[in-house]
Design brief:
By secondary structure, the protein is of the alpha/beta class. Helix content is 42%, strand content 13%. Helix 1 (5-13) crosses helix 6 (66-75), helix 7 (127-138) runs parallel beside helix 8 and helix 10 packs across helix 11 (239-249). The two termini are 41 Å apart.
Length: 364
């Protein structure tokens, strides 16, 4: 790593300085070290410089030591990738407002960045959409396709879990620091991803909270890392629609998964479809839209690990269709007592869930 690296760390430590500001300085001075040490009279010469940004930088810089910043991150075992680092993803260099630094846990090198699909959608997605997305992504098992998303609740979580369960690599781009993971319910998923399943990336220093305005900014990275974007469910005004717009601006292939017309969270989907987005109902639609020819290799997925033969039969039935108790008795041949014991166990383990106290659905 070069002598200038510590200044990239230092800029990343500033909480009131945006990537737009850092890019402005770096492009003007041509050196991150010169940018860091620039005085007010030099900064005022930069076209587009805003007084508020300049004053915030000068004030906050007083309390930041570049050497200490770099040492702290390295001691934490966190990787840091900046634009002068050869590991910095090429696709991010050409987007509007590229990130000036990415903190990373996990391993980005094991992810095929030429075969990336971003999966985005509603945090409050319908069970129908979540189930459909799981089944579509299962079709990628045995490929080197990498799923990119934001690790939020709903569709993001389903996308990452489907990748992990089917032996795929996945990249999560989060809207806060590693010490402030949000939602907390995804901490086990976070750990699975960094444990040889891909990487978690963020622009933010470890102690920075995941606040609302970070998420639209994060979306430009999710889209920027992808070759194509699949919108699984989206209201007209939503983060998923922001990502869809970014995908169009970045020249990415835009795809949509149709859902129930009566669901308000599909209004954005049908607007995008009418505007020319590709319709996706199975994995082959994605392959066609992306013009990919990929050789499938046998892969052992995680979804059958740790289940008894009888439990796996129940899981397989529910994965194919949402079924009520009577339907499960007919399909599995189990008596009601044995079936209820299995269903209760699987529900407590978060493998299945019940919709309105009636039908069972798979959460795998």
């Amino acid at each position: 790593m070069g002598n200038n690296d510590k200044y990239w760390y230092a800029f990343a430590r500033l909480t009131k300085t945006s990537s737009v500001f850092v890019n402005l300085l770096y492009n003007y001075f041509g050196s991150i070290e010169l940018a860091w040490h620039a005085q007010a009279y030099d900064l005022w010469k930069i076209e587009g410089m805003q007084r508020r940004s300049l004053e915030a930088f000068l004030e906050e810089r007083k309390n930041v030591n570049p050497d200490e910043c770099m040492d702290y991150i390295k001691e934490r075992g966190i990787e840091f990738i900046h634009p002068e680092d050869v590991r910095y993803p090429k696709s991010l260099r050409f987007i509007d407002n590229p990130p000036t630094g990415l903190f990373m846990l996990g391993n980005l090198d094991i992810c095929n960045l030429e075969r990336t699909i971003a999966v985005v959608g509603s945090r409050k997605a319908s069970e129908n959409s979540k189930n459909t997305l799981r089944k579509i992504l299962e079709g990628f098992a045995g490929t080197d396709i990498c799923i990119v998303s934001g690790m939020a609740e709903g569709i993001d979580t389903v996308g990452h879990k489907a990748a992990v369960d089917n032996g795929l690599k996945t990249i999560a781009v989060i809207g806060g620091g590693f010490d402030k993971l949000y939602p907390k319910s995804n901490i086990p998923l976070f750990n699975k991803i960094i444990d040889n399943r891909g990487a978690v990336l963020t622009e933010y220093w470890p102690d920075v909270d995941a606040i609302s305005w970070h998420f639209p900014l994060r979306n430009r990275i999710v889209s920027g890392l992808s070759k194509g974007v699949l919108v699984a469910e989206a209201a007209l005004k939503s983060g998923a629609m922001i990502t869809a717009r970014l995908a169009i601006e970045q020249g990415k292939e835009l795809m949509c998964m149709p859902g129930l017309i009566s669901n308000p969270n599909t209004e954005g989907i049908y607007k995008l479809i009418k505007s020319g987005a590709a319709i996706v109902t199975d994995v082959n639609d994605i392959m066609d839209a992306m013009n990919w020819q990929i050789e499938y290799k046998p892969v052992k997925t995680n979804i059958d690990n740790g289940f008894s033969e009888t439990e796996q039969i129940v899981i397989d039935c529910i994965k194919k269709d949402m079924l009520n108790l009577d339907e499960l008795i007919l399909k599995t041949g189990l008596n009601i007592n044995d079936l209820m014991i299995i269903l209760t166990k699987l529900e407590l383990e978060g493998v299945i869930s019940q919709t309105n106290g009636e039908k069972y659905i798979s959460l795998l």
